[in-house]
Request: fold
Amino acid sequence: MARRGAAMSSAPFMQLYVGDYLADTLHLTTEQHGAYLLLLMTMWRNGASLPNDPAKLARVCRVSPKRWPQIWAEISEFFAIEGEVMTNARLTKEHQKAVSISQERKTAGKKGGTANALKNINAREAIATAELKHSQISEPDIRE
Reply:
């Protein structure tokens, strides 16, 4: 799990489809909802997966290791475990989409900045030349 200073997700936001979420989770208690959402948000910030470590997962969910098995029994249906890694299919899909959109916007921004710089290069040179002429110290007019 990421700590301060560690790399975080390049996806700046996580969409929550409230209708879908509630349809799938109406049977959960408030405590289970909290645990599920904390896991999803932590996964989002960590590249859409978490280590399958019960002690760490309990800590993420802010429950005791003793309480964790009861919570996990109810929310485990929402996760896939592959070896040492835990994922959520919907979150993985949304995370990939958000990262892709973010990268596309980053690329478009760079292209726009480059085009703008090239378009305005002559104007900047003209302004710099004019400013140079106006800022030169003139020689005093000394008449003898």
In short: The chain has a mean pLDDT of 85. The longest strand covers residues 80-82.
